[in-house]
Write a structure and sequence with these properties.
Blueprint: E1 2-4, H1 8-13, E2 19-23, E3 29-33, E4 38-48, E5 51-62, H2 68-83, H3 99-108, H4 114-127, H5 129-132, H6 141-155, H7 157-177, H8 204-212, H9 216-228, H10 232-236, E6 243-244, E7 249-252, E8 261-264, H11 267-280, H12 310-324, H13 328-334, H14 353-370
Parallel strand pairs: 1-2
Antiparallel strand pairs: 2-3, 3-4, 4-5, 6-7, 7-8
Helix pairs in contact: 3-4, 3-7, 4-7, 6-7, 9-11, 9-12, 12-14
Length: 379
């Protein structure tokens, strides 16, 4: 191994395959002449507490890609680490974390709703059985492509997309734990956007008559869905103690965005729930929508034939808010949505209950007038 004063011209004149030449100017810098290329490298001894740990050689770059000045600058930086006892070539230890373990870590570090946790576990333990016990580092891009194709064929596109989004999320958490996982293999898969839900318009007068044919409790439940735009689980998990008839506030405890929503009830919804609670009082149930035959003690499945389901009614309620003239921000808050942008985080809906109440009454009047229940509705 020759020690010479390296210059750009001398490096060009060195014959291919002639070996290694050390730079006498910068300690550790060398040029390695391979059979078809010349590369810069740095070599030094890693010592800790006066003890030799190992000798490391690190490739810098090819000589035809960077100049000598740049190579010397990089070599000095690398040698500074080596002389400090740091091995620049050392990689973090692999944890071999499995997908199932990564899911547990992901859930533990977040405050997720119980429904979200249940969905994540179902996705991993039901739809990704062959992956759950494997190390995340061993899941390939081709594995992800095949998984999407198989799930689409067997369970449909919506389920396949949801499972792949869960896989992507869990692997991102695994990458924070195991630094040897450099890329998320789901990048190779274009996860289709779920189709936009198509909701047909309803004739409010006809819909009102249809709900009248349901059982009294199911009639009131469906009408409450339309008057509030609440999500299915948010409405079904309301307890009697969450209904303040005097203050006309309905508290939704189960919210997709977390926390709770204080919904200012209009006059008609308040009257519907007042009568409902009086009728159900002999059941001595803690639930607003009791069902003695249900294992949970409350209604579990509100869908009925010939009437729109809860999520369709949520879409329809949002549309009716626009038709009734409710501004965007107010309608979003009433539906439990978070306002966009940095300023949205400064808006606290629980402080705006009475401010939002006139808009709830506005929507109620719009619905009841078109349902032919009243000739006029005074605000």
């Amino acid at each position: 191994m020759a020690v010479i004063r390296l210059t750009e011209a001398r490096i060009k004149s060195l014959p291919f395959g002639s070996g290694i030449y050390r730079d006498e100017t910068v300690k550790g810098l060398m040029v390695i002449c391979h059979k078809s290329a010349k590369t810069y490298a740095v070599q030094g001894d890693v010592r800790r507490n006066g003890r030799h740990v190992r000798t490391v050689r690190i490739k810098i770059d090819r000589a035809d890609r960077i100049g000598l000045q740049d190579a010397r600058r990089r070599a000095k930086a690398l040698m500074s680490q080596i002389q400090s006892g740091i091995d620049p070539s050392a990689k973090p230890p692999a944890t071999d974390i499995t997908l199932a373990k990564a899911l547990d870590e992901h859930i533990a570090e977040r405050d997720l709703a119980s429904g979200t946790v249940r969905n994540y576990r179902d996705h991993v333990h039901i739809y990704m059985k062959k992956f759950r016990g494997r190390a995340v580092a061993d899941i390939s891009r081709q594995d992800c492509r095949e998984l999407l194709q198989q799930l689409t064929e067997r369970h449909g596109r919506t389920t396949a997309c949801a499972v792949l989004r869960t896989l992507r999320t869990v692997i991102n958490s695994a990458m924070r734990i195991d630094e040897t996982i450099e890329r998320n293999p789901t990048e190779a898969v274009k996860i289709p956007i779920p189709p936009v839900r198509k909701v047909a318009p309803i004739d409010l007068a006809e819909w009102w008559q249809q709900t009248a044919t349901l059982s009294p409790i199911m009639r009131d439940l469906h009408r409450s869905f339309l008057l509030t735009g609440a999500r299915r689980t948010s409405m079904l998990t309301v307890r009697r103690e969450n209904v303040d008839l005097e203050s006309r506030i309905l508290t939704f405890k189960h919210m997709k965005t977390g926390g709770e929503l204080l919904f200012p009830m209009g006059e008609q919804l308040t009257e519907i729930l007042r009568k409902r609670m009086q009728a159900d009082e002999p059941l001595n149930s803690p639930w607003l929508w009791p069902s003695p035959q249900s294992r949970s003690g409350r209604i579990a499945e509100p869908k009925r034939a010939n009437v729109p389901g809860p999520h369709e009614l949520r879409h329809i309620c949002r549309t009716l808010m626009i038709a009734a003239g409710v501004p965007y921000a107010e309608s979003a808050l009433l539906l439990g949505h978070k306002l966009p942008g940095a300023s949205g985080g400064y808006v606290h809906p629980e402080h705006l209950v009475e401010t939002l109440r006139p808009y709830v009454q506005l929507v109620e009047c719009y619905i009841f007038e078109r349902a032919s229940q009243y000739r006029s509705c005074n605000l």
